[in-house]
Specification:
- By secondary structure, the chain is α/β, with parallel strands linked by helices.
- Helices cover about 40% and strands about 20% of the residues.
- The protein has twelve helices and 15 strands.
- The strands form four sheets. A six-stranded mixed sheet has the order 2-3-1-4-5-6. A four-stranded parallel sheet has the order 8-7-9-10, with helices on both faces.
- Strand 14 and strand 15 form a beta hairpin.
- The longest helix has 21 residues.
- The protein is globular and about 60 Å long.
């Protein structure tokens, strides 16, 4: 009787010690945003399998760059997989659509998309939502500052006809107005469009000193190629949504000279030793390229890496309050993420708060240019 009781107690303790933290991951590994989502998916294999003494189980789903699929996947991860946390998704429209679902279920979400609207304002719904990519507001300010330094007075804009493109246009107008730069043309196009000739002709006719392309991934190549084909000679700016090898590979000579803000990880080997993110960025680059090949690293996979760093800081704190798989644990994890301070990531230093669920500052951005088919840090 005593032996049987002792064995029962030991088994119970073992089960408690091996409780899994379940993390759901949604990325766009197919569809128009695949060049962003694939490195995000690849990076999951580099994330820790154990945090705070607890096993971490990752379930990865592809939303095919589709908003409806992202919402369906979110519900599946919550209802069937009983996840404690969701990371994703890749695009702004889909991430925005996921907010209602995670807020209703009270499951923390770390988005991998850019728009500031994903996390602000931190209201009753967005209190459950965090993110790791720099916001469009933060990056637009860097672009406009560069424009002013180069005596640009007028700018044209062409961007996606969705929440990503509209967010970038709004932030461009806000930052440009503050620095006395006029937006003289604005056009839209679809992520899967094969021609933007009509829109580019209108922009060229307005004769702007520079053009900003508010797009991401491979679809951002088309407007720049068309500008070149139409003889446009002004500066062409892109967003941090193009900072990957596929953009360079597909764009080739057509994207030469493009100027954009990016996370410091993109040019980690060119950063001064004083940069706080240099060591973290080089470490991520080494791990990723040793697994997936030289020059395969991108800023998008690094957003997933930084989400992993936030998890490593927050999960041990949440485990002190509750067990994984419970509402109490998810609530504790949300609180721990919000209280995260001084996490040095590949993109910058994260200092989150009750009013800021990103926590990055100007140290999270550098200006780069495409030169001879690669990224060059602009001093």
């Amino acid at each position: 009787m005593r032996t049987r009781l002792t064995l029962t107690v030991l088994l119970a303790c073992t089960c408690t010690a091996l409780a899994d933290v379940r993390v759901g991951v949604i990325v766009s590994s197919t569809g128009p945003a695949a060049s962003l989502g694939i490195p995000e998916r690849n990076t999951v294999a580099l994330l820790p399998q154990t945090i705070g003494g607890q096993k971490v189980v990752y379930t990865i789903l592809d939303d095919a760059s589709d908003t409806t699929a992202a919402v369906t996947n979110t519900r599946k991860l919550i209802q069937e997989n009983k996840v404690d946390l969701i990371i994703g998704t890749t695009t702004t429209p889909a991430s925005l659509a996921m907010i209602d679902v995670v807020a209703e279920a009270k499951v923390p979400l770390i988005s991998l998309a850019a728009s500031e609207g994903i996390i602000k304002p931190v209201d009753a719904k967005r209190q459950w939502v965090f993110k790791t990519p720099q916001t469009d507001a933060l990056m637009a300010a860097a672009i406009v500052q560069h424009m002013q330094q180069n005596k640009i007075k007028t700018v044209g804009y062409i961007g996606f006809n969705d929440a990503y493109g509209e967010g970038w246009l709004a932030e461009l107008k806000r930052s440009a107005a503050a620095r006395g730069i006029r937006v003289v043309a604005e056009e839209r196009y679809g992520r899967s469009d094969t021609s933007v000739t009509g829109q580019i002709l209108k922009i060229v006719a307005a004769r702007p000193d520079a053009v900003l392309i508010g797009a991401s991934g491979v679809p951002a190549v088309l407007p720049q190629k068309t500008l070149n084909d139409r003889g446009y000679s002004g500066k062409i700016y892109q967003t941090h949504g193009v900072a990957n090898a596929d953009f360079l590979r597909v764009g080739g000579k057509d994207v030469e000279g493009a100027i954009l803000p990016a996370g410091p990880v993109l040019v980690a080997d060119q950063l001064p030793d004083s940069s706080p993110s240099k060591r973290v960025g080089l470490n991520y680059m080494s791990l990723y390229e040793s697994r997936y090949g030289k020059d395969s690293v991108s800023t998008f996979g690094a957003h997933m890496w930084d989400a992993g760093l936030l998890m490593q800081k927050a999960i041990p704190v949440a485990l002190k309050r509750a067990k994984p798989g419970t509402a109490e644990f998810r609530d504790a994890l949300r609180d721990a993420l919000e209280a995260t301070r001084n996490v040095i990531g590949s993109h910058g230093i994260f200092n989150l708060s009750a009013t800021d669920h990103l926590g990055l500052d100007a140290r999270s951005r550098v200006m780069v240019q495409v030169v001879n088919g690669t990224w060059k840090l602009l001093k």
